[in-house]
Amino acid sequence: MLPVLGAIALGGVILAAGACVLNSLSDDEKRRQEKLKRNYQEYKEKSDQEYRNIALTAHREMQRYARESQYELWRAKQAAIETRKAQNADSYAILESELNSQIAEWEKMYGQVQKAIETIREGMSQKYNQSLRGNSMKEVRSDLIQTSKIQRAYIGYLKKYQRAANRKYDRSGELTEPFLMRLPEKTPFIGKLMTFHRDQLLEESFHEEIHDGVSYLFVCEDRAYVENHPDMEYVSCLVTARMKKEEDDRLPYLVNCSRGIFMQMLKQNPLVPLEAEIIEVREEDGEYILDYKGVPLTLKRRNTRRYHRRLNSHEHRSVFVMDYDRNTLSWIQVTEWKEQCLRIESFTEVSLFIKDEDCDNFIATMEKKGGAWSEEGWYIGPMDQNQFDPAYLKFQLGRQVVFCVAQKNVAHNDEQHFYLEFVHFLSDEEMFQGNDSFVALHANLKARHMPSNGKFDGQNLWGGLALTLYVNSELLKQAKMKENRENILFFNQWSVIMDRLVEEKESVNHISIHIEETTGPRTLNLVDEDRNTVELFYQKALRFSKKENIPLQFYVRTINGRKYRARLSDDFSQINLKDELHVKQLEDSNYQLELHQFSNPYPERQQQSAMNSFLRGDLADVRMRDTIFDLTHLSFNDSDERLQFICNSSILQNQSQLRAVIRAVAVRDFFMIQGPPGTGKTTVIKELIWQQLQSNPSAKILVVSQANVAVDNVLQGLPDIGIAADHIVRCGLQDKMSERVQEFSLEHRIDDYHNKLYSSHCEENLQGYRELWRRLLERNKENDLIGEDILNVYPIIGATCVGLAQKHFGLDRMEFDLVIIDEAGKALPGELLLPINRAHKIIMIGDHKQLPPVIDPTLLDQNGIDLSDVIEEEIPVFFDRSLFRILFESCPETNRCMLDTQFRMPPMIGQLVSRLFYGGSLVTGDTCSQKKPLFFNKNLVFINMDEEQDYHEHKDPNERSGPYNPYEITATIFLLQELRKHYQQERIVVITPYKRQMGLLRKAVKNTNLSCVDVNTIDAFQGDEADLVIYCMTRSRRRTRYFSDYARLNVAFSRTKNMLIIIGALKYLKSYPQDHALHVIAEYLQENNLLLSYRQLCKFTDFNWAWSASSKVSQSVISEPAGQPVHITNTEKYLPKADNLQSYGKPCKICGQLYDEVNLLKGVCSECLHKSEHYPCQRCHQDMEFSNFNRYVLGEDRPELCLNCMIVDKHPCIRCKTNEVIVRGADLARHPQYTEKDFKYCSDCMKERSKLVEVGICQSCGTAIKMKQGVVEDYAEKGWEVSKFCKECKERRKQEVCIGTCRECGSTLMFRQGKVEDYKKSNRPLPQYCMTCHNSSKEEEFVGYCCDCQSPIYMTRGERRYYEQRGLQFPPKRCKNCKRRY
Question: Is the pTM of this model over 0.85?
Answer without folding.
Answer: no
